[in-house]
Amino acid sequence: DTVESRFVAMTPGSGRLFEQARSLFPSGITHDSRHLAPYPLAVGRASGPRKWDVDGNEYVDYIGGHGALLLGHADPDVTAAMMAQIPNGTHYGSSHPAEVAWGALIRELMPAAERVRFTNSGTEATLLALRLARAYTGKPRFLRFAGHFHGWHDAASVGHLSHFDSTSPIGVLPGIAQNVVVAPPNDAARVEELLATDDGIAAVIVEPTGQTFGRVPIAPEFLRTLRELTTRYGVLLMFDEVITGFRVSPGGAQVAFGVDPDLTSLAKVVAGGMPGAAITGRKDILDFLDFEVTAARGGEKIRHQGTFNANPVAAAAGVAALTKIRDTGACERASATAAEIRDGLNAVFAAEGVPWAAYGTSSAFHLFLNGRNLPIDPLDFEPAAYSPDELRSNDPGVVNALRLAMMCEGVDLAGWPGGIVSATHGPAEVTATVAAARRSIAALRS
Ligand code: PLP
C-alpha cells in the first residue's frame, strides 16, 4: 500500500474532478503552486484552521489561502462585513466609504504609507510600484534578490526561478532582462558594488523576511543595510510585503524591524481573503499618480486603471480583517503557534532519526528535507549555515510523497514544503500535525 494508493482510495471525488479539470486547464490547475501528483485536493468547504475535501475528509490547513488567511477560513467578522456589503452592491465604479476606511487603516498600521493606491493582486502591485520607481528616478533598472517572488509579470519573472540567470524566461520580451539586476540574498557587499557601479538602478526590491516567507531567510540587519545603501546611492527601497504585511506584525515587517521602505506592495492579508492589493509609500513618489500634482508641474502622469480596484466587498473584508488584526493580537497568536509546530516537528524528526528539520520565523514553518541525507540535528538547525541553493534543494519526489502521506493523516502542507499558520490554529492543530508527521514518516519508511 503506497501513500499514493492510500491517497487515491480516500479522495475519489478529487480524482473525478481532476479528470474534468485536466480537460479544461493546463495540468488541471489554475495556479502553478497547486500542482501535485497524482492530483491536488478538491476542497468543498473550510472553517478556521480546517478544511474538508469534496469527499468529506477533514484536514488541518497550512495553505492558508496562499497566505491571505491570517484569521483563518471564514472568519465570522470578515464574513459578516462582506455579507453586509453584498446586498448593497458589489461594484460601484465610483468612490465609496469602505475604500477610505481601508486606506486609513493601512496608514494607521503602516506609518510609511503616506499614500495608498489599490490594485487587485500582488502582481499588479509590484508592476505599478516598479513603474513608479522608474518614473520617480528616471532610471530603468531594478535590483532584486535571486529566488524572491514578486509576482509573475514580465520584469518580476526575471531572476525568480533561474537565479543569477538574467535572461528573459520564455515568453518574456527579450529587452526586459537587461533592466533587471539579480543579486544573491544577504550579500551586502555585492549590493553595494552593484549600486556603486550601475547608476541606472531605480530601486531595490526585497521580500523582507526572505524568499517564500523566509524559506531562504534574510536577517533584519540586512534590511537595515539595504536602507542605508539605497539612501546613500539615491535608489528607492521597495519592500514586497505581499505575504509579510499585517502578518509579521500588524504593521508588517517594516514596523516589526523598524525599517521604513520608500514603497511597499501589499496583497493577501490586506483584503481579508478577498482579491485585493495595494501599493503604499512616500507621497512624493505616489504623486506620479496624482492628476493635480503632475498637472501643476507640467509633467506626465502614470496611468493606472483597474475595474475592480478597491472593490467594495474586498474593501469591507479588508477593513474587518485589519481592524481585528490591530485589536486582537492575531499576528502574535499565529506566530506563537507556528513556533510550537516547528518545535514539535523537530522533536519528531530527532526521535525518528530522519535528516529533516523545521525552521522559520513569524507564522511560517519550512521543512528542510536534505536531499543529500547529511547528518543534521533537527534540534539545533540553523538555516544560516546553509546556502540558498541547499535550502532550496529538497527533492521534489520526497516533497510530493511527504505531502501525500500527510494528507492521508489529515494535514495539508504547503508545497515548498511547509506551512502558513493562522491565528485560529491552536493546540489541537499542533498535536494533530505532530502526530501526523510521526505516522507519515513510518508510512514513508514502510
Ligand atoms: N509578492 C510576494 C512576496 C508573494 O508572496 C506573492 C504571491 O504569493 C506575490 C508577490 C504575487 O501576489 P499575487 O499572487 O496576489 O499576484
UniProtKB/TrEMBL annotation:
Species name: Acuticoccus sediminis
Lineage of producing organism: Bacteria, Pseudomonadati, Pseudomonadota, Alphaproteobacteria, Hyphomicrobiales
Protein name, per record: Aspartate aminotransferase family protein
MF GO annotations: pyridoxal phosphate binding; transaminase activity
Annotated keywords: Aminotransferase, Pyridoxal phosphate, Transferase
InterPro entries: Aminotrans_3, Aminotrans_3_PPA_site, PyrdxlP-dep_Trfase, PyrdxlP-dep_Trfase_major, PyrdxlP-dep_Trfase_small
Family listed: Belongs to the class-III pyridoxal-phosphate-dependent aminotransferase family.
Taxonomy, superkingdom: Bacteria
Name of a matching Pfam family: Aminotran_3
Co-factor requirement: pyridoxal 5'-phosphate
PANTHER family xref list: GLUTAMATE-1-SEMIALDEHYDE 2,1-AMINOMUTASE, GLUTAMATE-1-SEMIALDEHYDE 2,1-AMINOMUTASE 1, CHLOROPLASTIC-RELATED
